[in-house]
Amino acid sequence: MKRERMSQWMNLQVFALLLLLAEGSYVPITILNDAVSKGAVCLDGSPPAYHFDKGSGEGINNWVVHIEGGGWCSDVTSCLWRKDTRLGSSEKMEEQLYFAGLLSDTEDLNPDFYNWNRVKIRYCDGGSFTGDVEEVDPGNNLHFRGARIFVTVIDELLARGMKNAEKALLSGCSAGGLTSILHCDRFKSLLPRGATVKCLSDAGYFVDVKDISGVQRIEEFYSQVVKTHGSAKHLPESCTSRLSPGLCFFPQHVASEIDAPIFIVNAAYDPWQIQNILAPGIADPGGSWRSCDLDIKSCTPDQLSIVQEFRSEFLKALSPLGNSPSKGMFIDSCYIHCQTETQETWFHNDAPLLSNSTISKAVGDWYYERSDSNKKIDCSYPCNPTCHSRVFDARKYPGIYKNHA
Predict the structure, then answer these.
(1) Signal sequence span per UniProt (predicted)?
(2) Which residues in the chain land under pLDDT 50?
(3) Helix spans in 134-270 (H)
(4) 18: part of which helix (H) or strand (E)?
(5) Active-site positions?
């Protein structure tokens, strides 16, 4: 009997693996060695990298360029930690990445973008591709060259066929989602004039609010990131001309100035923001928020009330996007960070729904202008039974946000 049960269990595991593989594909890495001569290098001085899966059929001249996420480093100490990981060196990166969700090549799982050219740019600069410091300290050998990486990789993709692009979508998750906001208009300016160019930010709309101790800690952190990476000259001038550069790292302060169409996918209860902006470890020395920020279901009534106030602040921060149909959003009430890269949340039979629409359908309707209503905002937690919640412990990644205990 035990042997029979073991055989059944193994069969289920094999079936699950085959089902998973059917929902995406592995794509090899491309190391851009020529970028080194241009100074467009990762934190450790190694060349940048990307993964490219060629389009086909009607999508042969259409492009999805997706930016990997991974937080930021704000000083020499935290950047040195990243330098020896895949978030700071192409020498530490996987040789293949799994493409699913927005990057899937399967029509049934990604109906609007499956046959486009699909690219994932690896994230190895720690500054959302905004940094540009010429000098390199020989004592630490750190290179802050993210802005050069962005332009150099885009130039490479143009040479590989994107110069003929008819449609293009710049997207990204987390710090990559912030990149797609900050570089949206720059990306559009680098593509052919007649192309339809739009931007998508997934879990990249980080908000400028006080933490539970009343301190504007994330504001201080972003100011340090911008200073360390020399980012000011690569942030939108329309913002830096009126606000300090650190504030211009927040989407709410630049969103109104973005000319290109943009779509925001974000959970109103993003666990990264709850753990790092609202209730970071340094603001919670006693650890009373530990269970709550790991799982919203474990919040006390008082904590949940504070989390609901955070949601209100988050929704208020979206107001600069205005009412233009070119600016869309899908703001659900799930407790999850990033939803476009995984099949279960992008497009699946049990994917999160707003107004009977999956994230995939909402993004596709916005991009192809199939709908007059491109703004979907969920009711407050715990109203949405279709939500997926994924426990995400940012405290396990000390190089992502140094203020965590």
Answers:
(1) 1-24
(2) 1-21, 394-405
(3) 146-159, 175-182, 184-190, 217-229, 237-240
(4) helix 2-22
(5) 174, 270, 337
